[in-house]
Design goal:
With 405 residues, the protein is mostly helical. It has one domain: MFS general substrate transporter like domains (Growth Hormone, Chain: A, Up-down Bundle), CATH 1.20.1250. It is 80% helix and 0% strand. The protein is built from 19 helices and no strands. α13 (247-275) crosses α16 (309-328). It holds the Pfam family MFS_1_like. Keywords: Cell membrane, Membrane, Transmembrane, Transmembrane helix, Transport. One of its GO terms (cellular component) is plasma membrane. Residues 16-393 form the Major facilitator superfamily (MFS) profile domain. It is found in: Cell membrane.
Length: 405
């Protein structure tokens, strides 16, 4: 069983790879039940595109503040596991409240509170997993790919259930997944690696991080590239139905899309070892840009489904390598803070821009135009990635990071 989950027979001691892989499986099962199908809930309570955009921008706005705060708490007090338990349970409980509210104002308030706790889940779980894979010489993608599998299964199964029983299923599935994730988290050691001594404040830590050119360029790229990827998770449901698909078809699409991420996350380890992190990330972002422009041309649902593996190349490669890039290009004493800042910019500011703009475009133009916008901002994000790959900062950045370790 350990070998199945971890993908590395030699790393099976103590069952930790199984627990970490299962943790990702159920965390992202919850996300897969929630994010791709939340548009069905919004439509059931008659929200406009602009209102959906505002609500969808709530998590990014909150994350800008809360993710660095969660990161600094974890770095200072070394309580990553406790923080993750708290945020998983609380966000699951808050999710159960959505079926009883039906106005824009109440949904906005509830989503804001949810975002405070949900914003810690990804950076903290990534920090725990990255510490483990570094210590045991594993590939992060081998564990992270189980998140893609969980997301894929949830999107499909929840899509079928939503079509049969309505959008309330979304929130019950989300809560159940968070609870099961906690059960597996309990099997993960309190500290999977020795934490560095915390010696700086949050503001000075962020200031130090922003002095690293490669890290700043990557933040800029993630603002555009990751922002459009996250926004697609919200708007694809509406898009797919407008080009002739069904709700169950949305679930099938996400099953194939997210399912394709897992093998490409596995492949990302090989590509990275052969050609490096920078080129792997650049390939992922380039394919994303092509994908969004193709979507804007209104292809058939059959074509969208048939080319499902495009998501594996773009999103799978990016997810498997982005956190690793952050870790390798920032000081060891600021690992969680660096990851939190990365997610605040990519999942935060970038997603906020894309969702707000997409909502306005939906009300004033069309869903197809939303994807033209996604393609444009992703092309902009390619510029800093090209500078990372071919720019003059690589040696200097590595020397500075190494000196702080």
């Amino acid at each position: 069983m350990t070998e199945i989950f971890s993908g590395n027979k030699q790393s099976s001691a103590g069952g930790k790879p199984v627990s970490l892989s299962a943790l990702y499986l159920f965390i992202y099962y919850g996300f897969g039940a929630f994010t791709p199908l939340i548009m069905q809930y919004y439509q059931s309570i008659n929200l406009t595109g602009t209102q959906v955009g505002l609500i969808s921008a709530t998590t990014p706005v909150v994350s800008i503040v809360t993710q660095p705060l969660w990161g600094i708490i974890c770095d200072r007090f070394r309580i990553r596991k406790s923080v993750l338990v708290l945020t998983l349970l609380t966000s699951g409980l808050i999710g159960l409240l959505f079926p009883v509210v039906s106005t824009f104002a109440l949904v906005l308030i509830l989503y804001t509170v949810l975002s405070v706790f949900q914003s810690a889940v990804v950076p903290v779980s990534d920090s725990i997993a990255l510490g483990y894979v570094k210590k045991h010489n594993l590939q992060f993608g081998d564990i992270r790919m189980w998140g893609a599998i969980g997301f894929a299964l949830a999107a499909f199964l929840t899509g079928v259930m939503v079509e049969k029983w309505g959008p309330s299923v979304i929130f019950y599935s989300y809560f159940a997944a968070m609870v099961v994730a906690i059960l597996f988290l309990r099997q993960v050691p309190e500290e999977v690696e020795s934490a560095p001594k915390f010696t700086t404040s949050m503001l000075s830590g962020i200031k130090d991080l922003l002095k690293l050119p490669r890290f700043v360029l990557f933040l800029t790229a993630s603002f555009f590239v990751f922002g459009s990827v996250n926004a697609n998770n919200i708007w694809f449901s509406l898009y797919y139905q407008e080009i002739g698909g069904t709700i169950a078809g949305v679930g099938l699409a996400f099953l194939l899309f997210a399912g394709s991420e897992a093998p490409f996350m596995k492949l990302a380890g090989y590509i990275t070892r052969r050609w490096g992190l920078e080129l792997t990330i650049l390939i992922a972002a380039s394919v994303s840009a092509i994908r969004w422009f193709w979507y804007s041309s209104a292809p058939s649902t059959t074509a969208v489904i048939a080319l499902f593996f495009v998501q594996g190349i773009s999103v799978g490669f990016y997810l498997a390598t982005a956190a690793q890039f952050v870790r390798e290009n920032t000081p060891a004493s600021l690992q969680v803070t660096a990851l939190a800042l990365f997610f605040s910019v990519g999942h935060g500011l970038g997603t906020m821009l894309c969702n707000l703009t997409a909502g306005w475009i939906k009300d004033n133009f069309s869903t197809l135009t939303i994807y033209s916008f996604f393609g444009t901002v992703t092309v902009i994000g390619l510029i800093p990635l090209l500078l990372i790959r071919f720019g003059p900062w690589k040696a200097a950045a590595e020397d500075k990071v190494d000196a702080t370790r």
